[in-house]
Design goal:
Length: 218
């Protein structure tokens, strides 16, 4: 499902953000990537989400060769994945339901289908009573759950999240992780970058560690 082979990412400087990353994630796995600030987690997340390309090496996710992907193919690839950012990235002038529906609107789905799917996903993330609210009327945890619902609305094969609990207190973090675990139990591959060791230890899931751009197990 996810394969990195001899992946390097060097920023101007030069800053060697990732060095010889080799990684295989099978379909249906749940993987945590931990590591201190500056270790390379976000760079990994950006490469995996096709926001950036590696300097060298090969990356394959959901059947797409991301090191060679063209601008034209990126929207098709994004239909296969769901991406959750630490800072939510919700549209402030759209309701919770509208924010969540956005990916399906872009894909041209008809309104009744969108409505049914939004209702379903709101139920999963526990936001049914917030659908007509605007982002500035809900809490941080609810915003993150909205962002997760938006990432899952098109039923992606892979969910990729960068520090999804970074702005949340421990109780809310646990709620978010519970949603990820539920989605994973239904077959979605989940890849979460975090510096929250407590969450990882509690989960018992597979953990990879990045330090100075090098990946390993602990
Ligand atoms: P993490 O997410 O683990 O905190 P990052 O992937 O953001 O780590 O950063 C890894 C390294 O790459 C750091 O040294 C960071 O300063 C550097 N870096 C990240 N993005 C850029 C960029 N766009 N340009 C230059 N250097 C960057």
């Amino acid at each position: 499902m996810i394969e990195f082979s001899h992946v390097y990412k060097t920023y101007p400087g030069p800053i060697h953000a990732l060095k010889n990353i080799n990684l295989t994630v099978e379909k249906g796995e749940f993987i945590y990537i931990t590591g201190p600030s500056g270790a390379g987690k976000t760079t990994l997340f950006r490469l995996m989400s096709a926001f950036d390309k590696p300097s060298s090496g090969n990356i394959s996710v959901a059947g797409y060769a991301l090191d060679q992907i063209t601008e034209k193919d990126v929207p098709y690839y994004r239909r296969k994945i769901g991406v959750v950012f630490q800072d939510f990235r919700l549209l402030s002038d759209q309701t919770i339901a509208e924010n969540i529906a956005l990916p399906l609107k872009v894909l041209g789905y008809k309104q009744p289908i969108i409505r049914a799917r939004v209702d379903e996903i709101l139920e999963i993330v526990g936001l049914t009573d917030r659908l007509d609210f605007y982002p500035n009327q809900i809490s941080g945890g609810e915003k993150q759950r909205t962002a997760i619902a938006r990432a899952l609305i098109h039923q992606p094969d892979v969910l990729i999240a960068d520090e999804p609990t970074g702005n949340l207190d421990p109780d809310l973090s646990l709620e978010i992780i519970n949603i990820f675990e539920q989605i994973n139990s239904e077959g979605t591959t989940v890849f979460v970058a975090t510096h929250d060791i407590n969450i990882v230890n509690k989960s018992g899931k597979k953990r990879l560690h990045v330090q100075n751009g090098i990946i390993g197990t602990l």
